[in-house]
Amino acid sequence: MSEHGAHPVDPAVDEATAGFWDELYQRRDQVWSGRANSVLAEVVEPLPPGTALDLGCGEGGDAIWLAGRGWRVTAVDVSATALGRLTAAATRAGVASRITAARHDLTRTFPAGSYDLVSAQFLQSPLELPREVVLRAAVRAVAPGGRLLVVEHGAPPPWARESHPHARFASPEEILAALDLDAAGWHTERLGAAYRTGTGPDGETGTLVDHVVLVRRRD
Fold first, then answer.
1. What is the mean pLDDT of residues 132-157?
2. Which of 107, 85, 87, 90 is nearest to 26 (CA)?
3. CATH no. for residue 38?
4. Backbone angles phi, psi at 98, to 5 degrees
5. In this structure, what are the phi and psi dihedrals at residue 89, rounded to the nearest 5 degrees?
6. How far apart, in Å, do the first and last CA atoms of the chain sit?
7. Which domain holds residue 38?
8. Which residues of 119-156 are buried (b: 16+ CB within 10 A; e: fewer)?
9. Which pTM was predicted?
10. What one-character DSSP code corresponds to residue 73?
11. Rounded to an integer, what is the distance from CA 4 to the centroid of its chain?
12. Per the structure, how many domains does the chain have?
């Protein structure tokens, strides 16, 4: 199936949401860099490979990076276009056998199973998203001894010309509170901000701030 072709109607997916993200991806041949997110790479580098759940995987930069290091990855997105690009890129990289692409509208369904790593990278949307519900489902998907990594934009990019008057970025502490963890069963390994250099749509560069929460389920 072409990435621009129609996909079967899925009652578990809101077609307006899927259409929004498909249209975004179809504007350009490649939307994201194809590289792993920097905080994810930093966190995972010292870990032994296991099973990973990549929520909102997009075109698959994180999933392919993980698979290249021996992880078995379930990569989830609502966009059939994004998943098609992920599958093609994984095949080119020789890691397709270690990645399962799954189409989920996380407002309606969530992947089954438990994982050594659950990654929620920039799971923020201009559309309605019950973020706390999704994050708590992510908590339940972490296996004993496994980790949940949540990375969110901490502020607008410096090149943003305007922002929505009601836009608000949760602090790391607020993100952690939203997970509603049982303190006896979890250990917080990282809580704070990370900074990186980014490039805007017109080639501008600037410092971006990300808010990071890394928690580990006790064995």
1. 95
2. 85
3. 3.40.50.150
4. -105, 5
5. -70, -35
6. 43
7. 16-217
8. bbbebeeeeeeebeebbebbbebbbeebbbbbbbebee
9. 0.88
10. E
11. 23
12. 1
